[in-house]
Amino acid sequence: MKAAFFRGRLGGVIFFAVLIFGTLSFTKVPAPMKVIPHRSFYRLPVSNGFVAAAFNLKKQAIDGFWPHIYKMIDQNRPVENLISNLTFTVSMNGSSLQLSKITFLNAGYISGTGIIRAKYGWQNWAIDLTLFAPMAGKRKALAVIFRVTPPAGNRSKRVDVQTLPKKIPGVGITEKSGWVKNRLFQKMFVFSVLDENQNSGTGLMNEAPGEFLLSEIKWWKNWQASSKIPVGLTLKQRKLFLQSLVILKMAQCREEGLSRGQILASLPPGMWNIAWVRDGAYSIAALTKSGHLEEARLGLAFMLRAKSGFYEHFMWHGKDYGVGVPYRISVCRYFGSGKEESDFNQNGPNIELDGFGLFLSALEDYVNESDNLPFLRKYWNRVAEQIADPLLKNIDSLHVIRAESGPWERHLPGAHFAYTTEAAIRGFQAAAHLANRLKDRTAAQKYERAASELRDGFFKNFVDPRRRILKGKLEAAFPAYLDAAAIEGINWGIVDARSDLSQNTLRVYSQKLHLKNRDYGFRRLLSSDWYDSQEWVFVDFRMAKALRRAGEKEKADRIVHWIEEQAYRNFNLIAELFEENTADYKGAVPMAGYGAGAYVLNFDSDSAATPPK
């Protein structure tokens, strides 16, 4: 539903009556311009789970090359960007130009792959650049391949490509070049991470540049072969869907040890290249749904093996805000080394409990889809005793999950958030089902009772009795309690999507959280904070899903279509935020769980959103 924010319009300008010095005059105030889909992002990422890189299309340069895909190895070891600005010079027939000076034609990803392709033209010569982090093997390397095609009749071999600069500390650069049948010049650069002995461990690939590129395309084709794609997608939607799966794959760490399997919230250059539990749970659910069960299993195994439990007790202003018992899932996120991390501000750390329920739900999805009971048996004691049982201990006298930092990370003392209790209800339902799969009836009954208790407490505490809408948190009055995260109660089936409670909630939330200069698009909270006030793409997706469940398919499809049209113009990457005034891409780009994963989860298993005519 399109919200009417102003009562009167005349000629596209809002008129306000202003009384000045006793006379009535009129001041023209421009009406908010409706934003349209447009390109605003130019730094394309690549990753193979070992390294990550970024190619800047405005500079026509590599301006990021990281030896790990995550931001921090541990508390005192940030991951250094080894390449901040590297471009190329192209020489033909005695003339040389930097790549940024050559006519740029177009760029994007080869569909369904993590391979960037850019095309240029110079004096009727065609220049084709491809850039990727090789997925085959375990290489901490970045490959860049130039293919230069001369015009017909011009077979001069005076062609070359060079890097600028030629040497970079900590990076090995190897080259391979040659002509193909005197018609195509090819040159490949391999940028490798050097160890303390200045060894790369990768070496130059044995294949010719063209063969190596084809091998990489084949790798992605084989990986996508298992992808489950919703029926009825348009060609553009299909490409966006496949590229979203690529982002999820590239955002998962492939290093050995405790790091393996973690899924980052965003890829660099996005600043949230950190493994949050919440984002990871949505990514795992999307991987499971799309048929990539091995990646889902690795994501679950990472959290089950990671070093956590550092916030069993945490005193803050004389009160213990810790989990209270030994536990397994991080209360916030993880360092790249696989150790629990929480960020601090003047109000202490974030101690969040929604991740416990989200993990249990993601685990159930995976077990249902894979039927991997040996995996469940292997970790069941850990799941029950260190995830589900600690969540039980954090049900308070209101019969909801106690005050904590919540999904938007409000630090301490936190509040009672509807989303956390919703996640716990869904988590206990999942735990009961998993226990039944293992014929552990005692545990199943315990978790069934917990889910029932929380449901009763939820409807007693998180429903505004006068307005008949969901309250996002208990420690606030209307409209300050509106929290878009509470909509998940509808998506998870806790609130009947066709009930008055659901319909009223969606109507009020859609009106109050809607941004004024676009037909659809929502902030996460009513707040003066810049971050809260932007359009949250994840919220858009989850609002659309709830509307679709409530029977409002046309509204839901229009929200998704708006995000799709933005993504089509931005290389099929999905942003964290759309800026509130311009709808430019802001925040971290690309997002994994909150972007690519949310897009995959948006679709029903057997249907697709219908783009408006």
Task: Give an overview in words.
With 613 residues, the chain is of the alpha+beta class. Helix content is 32%, strand content 21%. It has 14 helices and 28 strands. The strands form 10 sheets. Strands 10-11-12-13-16-15 form a 6-stranded antiparallel β-sheet, covered by helices on one side. It has a 3-stranded antiparallel β-sheet with strand order 3-4-5, with no helix packed on it. A 3-stranded antiparallel β-sheet has the order 9-8-14, with no helix packed on it. A hairpin with a 4-residue loop joins strand 3 (43-47) and strand 4 (52-56). Helix 5 (354-370) runs antiparallel to helix 6. The two termini are 17 Å apart. Mean pLDDT is 92; it is low at 1-31.
Topology:
Blueprint (H helix, E strand, L loop, with lengths): L12 E8 L2 E8 L12 E5 L4 E5 L4 E6 L5 E3 L2 E2 L8 E6 L2 E4 L4 E7 L6 E7 L2 E8 L8 E9 L9 E6 L6 E10 L3 E10 L15 H16 L10 H16 L24 E2 H13 L3 H13 L9 E2 L2 E2 L12 E2 L5 E2 L2 E2 L2 E2 L4 H17 L2 H21 L24 H20 L3 H21 L1 E2 L4 E2 L17 H4 L8 H13 L17 H4 L1 E2 H13 L3 H17 L7 E2 L6 E2 L5 H11 L11
Antiparallel strand pairs: 1-2, 3-4, 4-5, 6-7, 8-9, 8-14, 10-11, 11-12, 12-13, 13-16, 15-16, 17-20, 18-19, 20-21, 22-23, 24-25, 26-27, 27-28
Helix pairs in contact: 2-14, 3-4, 3-5, 3-14, 4-5, 5-6, 5-7, 6-7, 7-8, 12-13, 12-14
Please tell me how large the radius of gyration is: 26 Å
Major sheet: size, sense and barrel closure? 6 strands, antiparallel
Structure class? alpha+beta
Estimate the mean pLDDT confidence: 92
Cα(first) to Cα(last) distance is 17 Å
How much strand?
A: 15-25%
Number of strands: 28
